[in-house]
Amino acid sequence: MFKPKRVFFELDALDYPSGKQLFDYFSKKDVELLTLKTHNRVTGIPGSTPQEAYLEGKKTLVVGVRKTLNFASCKPSAHYQLPLVTSCMGKCQYCYLNTQLGKKPYIRIYVNIKEILNKTTKLIKERQPEVTVFEGAATSDPIPVEPLTGTLAETIKYFANQSLGRFRFVTKFTDVDSLLNIKHGDHTTIRFSINSAPIIKTFEQGTPRLPARIKAAKKIDEAGYPLGFIIAPVFIYKDWEKDYHDMLKELAKAVNLDPNKPPRFEVISHRYTLRAKSTILDIFPDTKIPMKEEDRQFKYGQFGYGKYVYPNEKRKQIKGFFTKEIPELFPNASIDYII
Ligand code: SF4
Hints:
seven-stranded parallel β-sheet; alpha/beta; single chain; five-stranded mixed β-sheet; binds iron/sulfur cluster; about 350 residues
């Protein structure tokens, strides 16, 4: 669970019962409490170097009211982003949010979940009779703040009653207990982002290790949720095949209980943009992430900008490995893609 060093409250957030409750909760904790006129202008987070700014941002919570209820699109995996949380307390060196959230990536939560879900209902109605899918982790990992907000549980219960709405989110965290005994109606898919144990240890600071994530996935599986795994980013290094094999083997021992609800897999090989590389080097100057352009192939992606991916032959190796290993260990699983 996220334990911030400082918490900013947008003044309007205190008019909501959950905002007031959070304020009372943090008043009794050893944290710095501050107020803000608007959550869009957060000043006062210290940090004079990129590293300090990043680390202090990651220790900061902002409690606000989500006023813009225009949900961004979330193609190709879902129709819309569901804005429940922004940012994450983890410090993964290759985090996709590093280039999106500014130099102080504070964590923002919203107290007006009812208004957010009302908007969700409108969007579902607009697309009926089609099913509309909402992604809850497009700009965050929503699990570490769930014990504070209960927002995911409320959202999952909301979607359980939506015949034409589906919810999904992905996490590397393990605070899932409050989600286990609620009605989900098979309408929420929970995906765990996993990697080989050495990769997690080297690059995913501030996140639970592989055994803890597998344990959390087992709980979600036993609670009957549709379950998925994102294996990303996959690296080729000495012993990579053994390490990823061990990871899948441990996972197979824990999940795969219900043959009618097999897990889904998404596999993404490591890739980077020059912008991401420069941000990563600012924050983690000693990073060991392999980012040498001469070892990679430049490839334009579906969103029009280029990335440095592994050369064809290595990507084929990765594809071959997971295409063979996943069905062997999870006979009923489906693989959505391996890229
Ligand atoms: S857990 Fe996910 S969202 Fe959080 S820092 Fe790591 S990659 Fe980013």
